[in-house]
Amino acid sequence: MGKCLDFKSCGFDNRDEARFCSRCGIPVKGTLLQGRYEIQSLIGKDRGTVTFQATDLQTRHTVTVRALIPKDTNTQEQNDFLQDAELAVSLSTHVSDPGSIRVIDYGQDGPVVYMVKTAPDSTPQPSSLSRFVNRLSSDLFPQTPSNSGIEDEDTTRIRIAVPGNTPQPTPAPWPTPGPAVRDWLVEGNLAYEHGSYEQALAAYEMATRQNGASVEAWSGKGATLLHLGRAEEALQAYDQAISLSPNDPEHWTSRASVLHDLQRYDEEMYCYDQALTFDPDYVYAWSGRGMALAEQGYAEDALVAFDRALLLDPQQGTVWQAMGDTLYSLHRYDEALIAIDRAFALDDSQASLWDTKGNILRRLKQPEQALVLHEQATQIEPNSATSWFDKANDLRDMRRFGEALNDYDRALALDPTLAGAWYNRGNVLAALRMFEDALNSYDHALQYDDGLISAWYNKGSLLHELQRHQEALAAFDRALALDVHYIAAWNNKGLSLFALGRLDEALAALDQATSFAPEEPDAWYNKAVVLEKLGRKQEALTCRDWARSLDQQAKQAQGL
Predict the structure, then answer these.
(1) Which of 119, 132, 278, 458 has the fewest Cβ atoms within 10 Å of its own Cβ atom?
(2) Which SS3 state, helix, strand or coil, does residue 31 take?
(3) In the CATH scheme, what is the code of domain 450-559?
(4) CB atoms within 10 A of CB 529
(5) Is the domain defined by 182-280 classed in CATH 3.60.130.10?
(6) Spatial distance between the Cα atoms of 276 and 368, rounded to a whole number of angstroms
(7) Phi, psi (5° rounding) for residue 204?
(8) Which regions does the record annotate with the repeat TPR (predicted)?
């Protein structure tokens, strides 16, 4: 955490443990909103609002979070924002057309009110689209399509092909002595191919001085600067290449990659549009556009771009995997499985593919098949905490609790800050009725993520089971502070207050539960018990009758 993400207007240096900027109030990097959405970066700012790129820890997919700036807005504006967000969520449930944007969540955490765009999921999954930050494959400018699927980190950046008609130096230990007039472009290309980026940069700079109109030299310089982490300078080099050859879609696509690293997403999309204006069938512009849209949470738009890219080149394994991840985020699991299988057919060496396919099968209620895939993922990449975590989830679903505990421990040995693993470990221990150990595991989860609502609720429920009602109340209150509409927390808070003899407070808690969820019979039954204890027998009878009616309706709906 630390420095405020609004570098231009604020830039305040906060304490390391701060979740929100002490000056302007917006979330700092790494903050978990409602224990689910991890803030990654600031996308934009406009008239009292900020937009962030974030990760949904339940799905491990990228989402967009729009929030009001606390210091610039008042309570009424915040209430209006939440009302609008609630309406947007309601309307989004009816939207399924391609090209649509969905608001899928909203709420308040600390000083911030926010809404979330993209499709939610219910269980933490491995990061799916973040691995495509370097979205284009190593052969961004290939003569023939690549047959490899997903390349490693060094090869996912833009590369410049060595011109086929350019004389090569005499084979010898590189670099070789040049002729009287050295061909700096050739030397730059060779150095780039060898991964000697500092030498490549020096050669490309000499080439641009030798011939300032050399498009290849400027493009090579841009690619090399990007490798060296000097994105602003890379952008200037690509701008020069585009000024010399404005109709080349390759240069526009390369420029888009630089802008992605700089988090200038609107400009990035403009570059893809320009590339496709000059060549509507330029596959790398379509694939890059799809990756960018998916990372920003525009899943339906991304699928359209992926479809076009794969129609042009069905051998793009990276795009098949991205399409699978995007379909997964939309809960379209059968289609996601087809896409992942296409990626497998091109390259089955990536642990992430085995892991993702396993997660799809688990969501399709096939944990036995998922387990086989996750075991393979752990063999390919034994130091991946995520793969061990997902394997443990399979074992948990199969009720093989002892083995699940072992794999949660393996995941936590690799990454002790993995709050989801501590939380699910606690759930397994609770299922084994090892309540004290489960409480300890929940406490660890909350140590690393104190916004994990379900951990507070489960902790409160276990404390209630252990008749530690005062502690249970504190846990339920923490859950409700994070989500005031958490019905089960209101219900169980009422039970704890009843156990403490605080009947009026218990009734007030159960009133909240029945007002938020009038169709749930349990709260009505509990409310009847409290009313009877208070001597309000007629009201108690009415609540009990209503609860029985709801039970009967539920049975009829299930055909029982």
Answers:
(1) 278
(2) coil
(3) 1.25.40.10
(4) 17
(5) no
(6) 44
(7) -65, -35
(8) 215-248, 249-282, 283-316, 317-350, 351-384, 385-418, 419-452, 453-486, 487-520
